[in-house]
Amino acid sequence: MQTGQPSRTALGAARLRAAHQVLDQASILADPLAVRILGDDIEVSLDHAQTHTSGPRMRWFIASRSRIAEDALNMAVDAGTTQLVVLGAGLDTLAYRTPLAGRLGIFEVDHPATQARKREMLAAAAIAEPETLSFVPVDFEREKLSERLDAAGFKSDERSFFSWLGVVPYLTEDAIFSTLGFIAQLPGGAEVVFDYVNPATSIPAAGRAAHQALAGRVAAVGERFQSYLDAASLCAKMSAAGFRHVDDIGPAELAARFFPETERAAPTRGGHIMHASTF
After folding, report:
1. CA–CA separation, 246 vs 235, rounded Å?
2. Cα(245)–Cα(83) distance, integer angstroms
3. Does some domain include residue 20?
4. Each residue of 233-261: pLDDT tens digit?
5. Is position 4 within any domain?
6. Does residue 61 belong to any structural domain of this protein?
7. pLDDT higher than 70, residue 177
């Protein structure tokens, strides 16, 4: 990420979410603010989606990870969750459209420059910021998440849900497991949804070229992939850290659940989505 500049990959993900609403008729994720927050950018968004190196599968994956997180949040609130933390929020619109906003303390955590740009875009699009929302500027590699959240009014003894989408591959393993360790030890109980990618050597040859093209593309804008996680090892580490329920959702299951039937022939391509809880 360029120092002092908003995240380019966050904008790219937002463009794919917006394109999903138009090109796929929101078949996986209905997000009525995805197009609106981008203002006049929709034509660029559609071009970005239609020329993406991963084809349509990347926008389906981005829609799928949000759908899984939002479905899990709905169940969590029904079970007593009172706080939502969106880690690396980017241009995600969940806090501004969820009917649960009045029942949750919401904390959006991100780099200051990305957060400032988002607030400008929200204002330009006349999208209101919920009264229950707090913005928490954090550099994951240099600052302690716990300290920044505490200063913003986060209550560690209340049950919490963490949505951490499109961030983990860009962090070091130390930063990843430090954050997971913090979540796992919260006395009020917590659950987390995040996405990650396996080492390139474990990706079948059919999908390796697309993966390498994507890695090159994000590196070119200064936001290179830093971490590749083995699924079995990750699950074991999370269990050891204190997560009692660990559900790894791989490419095959994602394709079966969300992708068009004609696109399920190459399910080994793509990222994983992890849903874990401490209870």
Report:
1. 7
2. 19
3. no
4. 999 999 999 999 999 999 989 999 999 98
5. no
6. no
7. yes
Do 249 and 274 form a contact (C-beta atoms < 8 A)? yes
Identify the band that residue 279 occupies on the pLDDT scale cut at 50, 70 and 90.
Answer: very high
Specify the CATH number for the domain of residue 96: 3.40.50.150
The set of residues, in sequence order, having a beta carbon less than 8 Å from that of 44 and lying 6+ positions away, is 15
Domain that holds residue 197: 69-277
Residue type, 152: A
Q: What's the total number of domains in the chain?
A: 1
Note the pLDDT tens digit of each residue in 2-43.
556 789 999 999 999 999 999 999 999 999 999 999 998 889
Q: Say if 63 falls within a structural domain.
A: no
In Å, what is the CA distance from 166 to each residue of 38, 141, 154, 240, 268?
18, 16, 23, 24, 19
- Which of 271, 115, 97 is closest to 193 using CA atoms? 271
